């Protein structure tokens, strides 16, 4: 366990009724003061994880710890956790001040104390002077900030945010991404943020948990996950990828497109079928005879910073290339890539399985 762990899930399984498990033996740790993102497609179990942390539901199996105390049965109102919901769940009949003060009034704090806390919280989210505004007179971004002020006014240890930016238009969403990230750093409170948008996750997080079908596929920093996707799901979900079938001949040597290439991967069986990922920006356009592969340019789009070029090799596989150089549709070109640009993945492997495999692999090697 890490020294700073604030929340720990230990083989948590969640079932609703008799349906298959929504979360399947999920284990993870959340460290104090960091920005975490749960990223995955709709229905993968993100909101369920937040509800378990908040205490709205109890796990079917497994344990949840907060500051190393088991909290499976601790009710929501006794946890130092506040949630910002997708629709903000503000009270339309109350003004900004009373929305933020709501929880403090329930706690029956003195008016002078409430006043100070509400003013401080509103100042934190840049809404000083808006105390008497009606909620319906506030823009989407301002409502978002009221919802956050209402969460931070309780001085929780953790703030949970369930897709809070998804209702905003693109420009405002980008602004709020900066704002939320900056706010989290100023407050130093642990944020657990939910999104299905990979760019949002990459931009905002210290750590990302990529989730699919009730399992954490991979966890790590944005660069870890982008550079070293663990399986096809992650490679496909995060950024754009070329995913090609291949064979791991032996350590550091992989075969695809009928050719063998040096790579930096190890720990597979010899001649094991694998999947290869090469990111579009790791492919360099060369003369046809100078590349590792020969392809024909099928189409291209200008994307502002780069060209997105779609090519086909002789076997009919599609190759996506991001290049600042323009290509010509119909041309034969070469594609060059470094050994480091090749990522080899075992079919459908999750992070847990990967860690076990590498562990037993290095034990085997050590024993020899
Ligand atoms: N109260 C519930 N009763 C039955 N099934 C539910 C309930 N809440 C969620 N589910 C199911 O659990 C799965 C995961 O839901 P959820 O955690 O909300 O996913 P996400 O937030 O990632 O979209 C979905 O298949 C959903 O239909
Ligand atoms: Mg959800």
Automatic annotation (TrEMBL):
<dbReference type="GO" id="GO:0016887">
    <property type="term" value="F:ATP hydrolysis activity"/>
</dbReference>
<keyword id="KW-1003">Cell membrane</keyword>
<dbReference type="GO" id="GO:0005524">
    <property type="term" value="F:ATP binding"/>
</dbReference>
<keyword id="KW-0067">ATP-binding</keyword>
<dbReference type="GO" id="GO:0043190">
    <property type="term" value="C:ATP-binding cassette (ABC) transporter complex"/>
</dbReference>
<keyword id="KW-0547">Nucleotide-binding</keyword>
<keyword id="KW-0813">Transport</keyword>
<dbReference type="InterPro" id="IPR003439">
    <property type="entry name" value="ABC_transporter-like_ATP-bd"/>
</dbReference>
<dbReference type="InterPro" id="IPR017879">
    <property type="entry name" value="PotA_ATP-bd"/>
</dbReference>
<protein>
    <recommendedName>
        <fullName>Spermidine/putrescine import ATP-binding protein PotA</fullName>
        <ecNumber>7.6.2.11</ecNumber>
    </recommendedName>
</protein>
<dbReference type="Pfam" id="PF00005">
    <property type="entry name" value="ABC_tran"/>
</dbReference>
<comment type="function">
    <text>Part of the ABC transporter complex PotABCD involved in spermidine/putrescine import. Responsible for energy coupling to the transport system.</text>
</comment>
<dbReference type="InterPro" id="IPR013611">
    <property type="entry name" value="Transp-assoc_OB_typ2"/>
</dbReference>
<dbReference type="GO" id="GO:0015594">
    <property type="term" value="F:ABC-type putrescine transporter activity"/>
</dbReference>
<dbReference type="InterPro" id="IPR017871">
    <property type="entry name" value="ABC_transporter-like_CS"/>
</dbReference>
<dbReference type="InterPro" id="IPR003593">
    <property type="entry name" value="AAA+_ATPase"/>
</dbReference>
<comment type="similarity">
    <text>Belongs to the ABC transporter superfamily. Spermidine/putrescine importer (TC 3.A.1.11.1) family.</text>
</comment>
<dbReference type="InterPro" id="IPR005893">
    <property type="entry name" value="PotA-like"/>
</dbReference>
<comment type="subunit">
    <text>The complex is composed of two ATP-binding proteins (PotA), two transmembrane proteins (PotB and PotC) and a solute-binding protein (PotD).</text>
</comment>
<dbReference type="InterPro" id="IPR050093">
    <property type="entry name" value="ABC_SmlMolc_Importer"/>
</dbReference>
<dbReference type="InterPro" id="IPR027417">
    <property type="entry name" value="P-loop_NTPase"/>
</dbReference>
<keyword id="KW-0472">Membrane</keyword>
<dbReference type="InterPro" id="IPR008995">
    <property type="entry name" value="Mo/tungstate-bd_C_term_dom"/>
</dbReference>
<feature type="domain" description="ABC transporter">
    <location>
        <begin position="7"/>
        <end position="238"/>
    </location>
</feature>
<dbReference type="Pfam" id="PF08402">
    <property type="entry name" value="TOBE_2"/>
</dbReference>
<keyword id="KW-1278">Translocase</keyword>
């Amino acid at each position: 366990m890490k020294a700073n762990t604030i929340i720990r899930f230990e083989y948590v399984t969640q079932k609703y009724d008799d349906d298959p498990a929504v979360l399947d033996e999920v284990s993870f740790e959340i460290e104090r003061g960091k920005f975490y993102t749960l990223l995955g497609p709709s229905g993968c179990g993100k909101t369920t994880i937040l509800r378990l942390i908040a205490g709205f539901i109890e796990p079917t199996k497994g344990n949840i710890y907060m500051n190393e105390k088991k909290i499976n049965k601790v009710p929501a109102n006794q946890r130092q956790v506040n949630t910002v919901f997708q629709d903000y769940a503000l009270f339309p009949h109350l003004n900004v001040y009373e929305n933020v003060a709501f929880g403090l009034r329930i706690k029956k704090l003195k008016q002078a104390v409430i006043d100070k806390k509400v003013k401080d919280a509103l100042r934190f989210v840049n809404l000083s002077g808006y105390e008497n505004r009606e909620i319906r007179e506030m823009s989407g971004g301002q409502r978002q900030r009221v919802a956050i002020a209402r969460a931070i006014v309780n001085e929780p240890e953790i703030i949970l945010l369930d897709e809070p930016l998804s209702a905003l238009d693109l420009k405002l969403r980008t602004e709020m991404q900066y704002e939320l990230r900056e706010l989290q750093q100023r407050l130093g409170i642990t944020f657990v943020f939910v999104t299905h948008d990979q760019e949002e996750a990459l931009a905002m997080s210290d750590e990302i948990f990529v989730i699919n079908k009730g399992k954490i596929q991979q966890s790590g920093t944005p660069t870890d996950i982008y550079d070293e996707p663990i399986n096809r799901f992650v490679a496909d979900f995060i950024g754009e990828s070329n995913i090609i079938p291949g064979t791991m001949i032996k350590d550091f040597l992989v075969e695809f497109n009928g050719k063998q290439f040096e790579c930096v991967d190890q720990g597979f069986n010899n001649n094991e079928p694998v999947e290869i990922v090469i990111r579009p920006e790791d492919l360099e356009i060369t003369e046809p005879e100078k590349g590792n592969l020969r392809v024909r340019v099928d189409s291209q789009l200008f994307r502002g910073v780069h060209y997105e070029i779609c090519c086909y090799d002789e076997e009919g596989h599609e190759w996506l290339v991001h290049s600042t150089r323009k290509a010509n549709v119909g041309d034969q070109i070469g594609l060059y890539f470094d050994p480091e640009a090749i990522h080899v993945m075992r079919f459908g492997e999750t992070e847990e399985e990967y860690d076990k495999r590498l562990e037993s692999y290095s034990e085997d090697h050590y024993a020899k």
